[in-house]
């Protein structure tokens, strides 16, 4: 079978995105809004988006930053802390402000200092979420410095996630940015329950840990969870291209300025919003699975979130596209996109 030169997909959604705030929001939002109809917006601002009122205000700032004429729906999330008020969270969910809540183990990643210090502390919050069907989105890494950075996801699954699902048998969970074969296996084992999903980033489909050190240290390929060995990348490609329901698109596009990345202690995050769909198309084509891209990008996510699939269609064409070298944020500040300056095989051509 020859691969197609044109793909028509229901408009995809990005189920994990960092839009930031202020000048950075203004600079990066147009990229996400151009390709995706909806996006799950991560709440790790400073200070975090923790209460319903914070999310209402942040959503307004996002909508105000949208280029004229763009139709894009930000789906807001609550940043869980040790002090999250279950009543406020439930009210935000009932009012349609919050779509889900995000669990950052304290200090696991960027702006997670206010995260949950011990999951036992938020048991009443999780019980309430299970009751009302509000999804829990999990950054699945243990924070114990004694655990090797490449093992933190697998250890989290064994010691925290497994017991958590047993304690809360009806809680709906998304394992965010899965990076290991262990995560894929865990999600598949629990798939029949319909209560677990997993997002997979484009960069974790395209790089393994060796790429981070290819010819020198590559700070723009450093993200959390960190890319793992090749066998894990292969497991992620297999999961994403399987078309199976629990696996869906979440870029985890996480912009930081060049200055914040290229320094003695660089920030974690890959900025993939500039050409997210082209990157995924590249990975799916390499796996001979372009026919499954729509399930992963446009169908499985809405099904998990109990939202309608998009009616609108978008087109990807087999036509080389060049990733921008830099995206300007403000005078003297820029973000360097993943695959900056490189040519990709596919181009996003807009609405069908
Ligand atoms: O690489 C990452 N960047 N991983 C995260 O979990 C957070 C994100 C960010 O906000 O920069
Ligand atoms: Zn993230």
UniProtKB/TrEMBL annotation:
GO terms for biological process: 'de novo' pyrimidine nucleobase biosynthetic process; 'de novo' UMP biosynthetic process. It catalyses: (S)-dihydroorotate + H2O = N-carbamoyl-L-aspartate + H(+). Pathway: Pyrimidine metabolism; UMP biosynthesis via de novo pathway; (S)-dihydroorotate from bicarbonate: step 3/3. SUPFAM superfamilies: Metallo-dependent hydrolases. GO terms for molecular function: dihydroorotase activity; zinc ion binding. GO terms for cellular component: cytosol. Its cofactor is Zn(2+). Zn(2+) 1 binds at residues 16, 18, 102, 252. The modification N6-carboxylysine is found at residue 102. Coiled coil: none annotated. PROSITE patterns: DIHYDROOROTASE_1, DIHYDROOROTASE_2. InterPro entries: Amidohydro-rel (IPR006680), DHOdimr (IPR004721), Dihydroorotase_CS (IPR002195), Metal_Hydrolase (IPR032466). Residues 14-307 form the Amidohydrolase-related domain. Substrate binds at residues 18-20, 44, 139, 224, 256, 268. Binds 2 Zn(2+) ions per subunit. Belongs to the metallo-dependent hydrolases superfamily. DHOase family. Class II DHOase subfamily. Catalyzes the reversible cyclization of carbamoyl aspartate to dihydroorotate. Homodimer. PANTHER family: DIHYDROOROTASE. This is Dihydroorotase. It comes from Azospirillum thermophilum. The gene is pyrC.
